[in-house]
Amino acid sequence: MRRRQLLGGLGVASAGMALGQRSVQAQARPTLRPPRLREGDVVGIVSPAGATYERDRLDLVVDAVKALGFVPRIAPHALARYGYLAGTDAERAADVNAMFADPAIKALLPVRGDWGSARILPYLDYNTIRANPKVVIGFSDISALLLGVYAQTGLVTFHGPHGLTAWRADQVEPLRQILTEGAALTYSNPLLGADQDRLMRDQGRIQTITAGRATGPLIGGNLSVISGIVGSPYFPDTSGAILFLEDVGEPPYRIDRMLTQLKLAGVLDGLAGFVFGQCTACGPGSGYGSLTLADILRDHIQPLGIPAYAGAWIGHVEPLWTLPIGGPVTMDAATGTLQMQSPAVV
C-alpha cells in the first residue's frame, strides 16, 4: 500500500492538546471487550483516514448501516477535506473522540481507509476510550486505529469491513454472529467459483510454512501500515501472539523490506504463530529476477520455528473476515484455520 508523501506541519494546536499528551507507552493490559451490538443501536460513521470525495459514497455507508439494522450517525467532519485526508488531524481525531464520549453511540464504522489513521493516534483520548468501550471495525489503513486503540487501552477491536466494502451476505452473517450474538467462529478459506464443483481446490489455497497449532491473542493488519507504527506506543506487544499480515499493491522487494523491518524491530521475536493473508496485486515488476512471496516468507518466518501458514483469506478480498484484534485464537498451520477461543463482545 504505497503512500510516499507526507504532509508537513501537523497544524493541530487548535485541538487544545500537546503532542503525546494523551499517550503512554504501550504495555500489556487486561483485555477489555466492547458490549455486543443490538438492533437499533446507533453506529457512528467516521473518516479517520482518506477523504470521501463524493456525497453518494457516504450515502452508501448510511444505507449499509440501516440495512444492518442500526441507526447511522454521521460525524461532523466525515466529508471534510484537507488534501487527500478527511480533514485535519485535529478534526479527524475530534470526531473519533466525540463518538467514544457519546453514550448513545455503540460502534464506530470508518467510511474508508487509504491513509491517515496513524496521524491521529497521538490526539485520541485513550482514557475516554477505555472508560467507554465500543465496537471499532475496519481494515487496510484503519489497522493503525485498531492497533493503536488496543495497544493503549486493551480494548478488543475488529479487523473487518469498513463502510465502503461490498457488504456481501457471506461477510455480513459472520459479522452479525460475532458482534451481536457473541459467537466464537472458526475461519477457513472459502470455496470460490468453479472450485465448488471440483475435487480439489485451485483458488484460495493455503501454503503451510511450518506445521503445528498455536494459541494466543490475535494481532495484525496491513503490513505497510504496521511497518509505519512499529516501535511507537501505538503498536502492541506481540510476545505470545498470533501475528497476521496482509497487503495490496506491493512488489516482493517491498514486502521483503517491511518484514525485515519487523524482524529488526523484534516484532517477530516470541511470536506463538504467524499467518500471512492475501497480497493483492503484489507481483514482481519487469526487469531482472525477483524473489517470490513464498521465498520471502520462507526466509523470514521458517527460521522462527513456529506454526505458520500463508494464503489465509485476509486482506483486500471479498468476503472479508471479521477478526478480533486482541482476542484469543487458535491457528492450525496444516489446515489453514483460525478459531476464536471466546466471544469478542460482552
Present the secondary structure layout.
Layout: E1 42-46, H1 55-67, E2 71-74, H2 89-101, E3 105-110, H3 117-120, H4 126-131, E4 135-138, H5 143-153, E5 157-159, H6 169-180, E6 186-187, E7 207-210, E8 213-222, H7 223-229, E9 242-248, H8 252-264, E10 273-280, H9 293-301, E11 308-310, E12 323-325, E13 328-332, E14 337-340
Parallel strand pairs: 1-2, 1-3, 3-4, 4-5, 8-9, 9-10, 10-11
Antiparallel strand pairs: 5-12, 6-14, 7-11, 8-13, 13-14
Quick synopsis:
The chain is α/β, with parallel strands linked by helices. Helices cover 25% and strands 20% of the residues. Helix 1 links the parallel strand 1 (42-46) and strand 2.
Number of strand segments: 14
Helical content class:
25-40%
How much β-strand is present in the residues? Answer: 15-25%
As a whole number of angstroms, the C-alpha radius of gyration is: 19 Å
Second CATH tier, the architecture of the largest domain: 3-Layer(aba) Sandwich
Q: What is the CATH topology classification name of the largest domain?
A: Rossmann fold
Mean of all residue-level pLDDT scores:
92
- The CATH class name of the largest domain reads Alpha Beta
Q: What is the overall number of helices?
A: 9
Sheet with the most strands, sense and barrel status: 8 strands, mixed
Strand arrangement, largest sheet? 6-14-13-8-9-10-11-7
Structural class: alpha/beta
Number of domains: 2
First-to-last CA distance: 34 Å
Element order, helices and strands? Answer: EHEHEHHEHEHEEEHEHEHEEEE
The coarse overall form would be globular
In terms of per-residue confidence, which ranges show pLDDT below 50 for 5 or more consecutive residues? 3-25
